[in-house]
Amino acid sequence: xxxxxxxxxxxxxxxxxxxxxxxxxxxxxxxxxxxxxxxxxxxxxxxxxxxxxxxxxxxxxxxxxxxxxxxxxxxxxxxxxxxxx
Length: 85
Description:
mainly alpha; 3 helices; elongated
């Protein structure tokens, strides 16, 4: 998803947690403990969606030329050997 084409979606995703926290405070509970727990839950769900969005953006990228893939394979083998020990 290209952010330049969907500018309104970007602002909607950013504003949705703020709006839902405000509605929760006004209509559900004004207790500090429930508000803090709702904020933590809301923000964590928000960042799960942001991380999935970033993952999709990364997976859409080109893998690169053959020389870069060969070097990446060597680096991958070295890092796997490092983590085994």
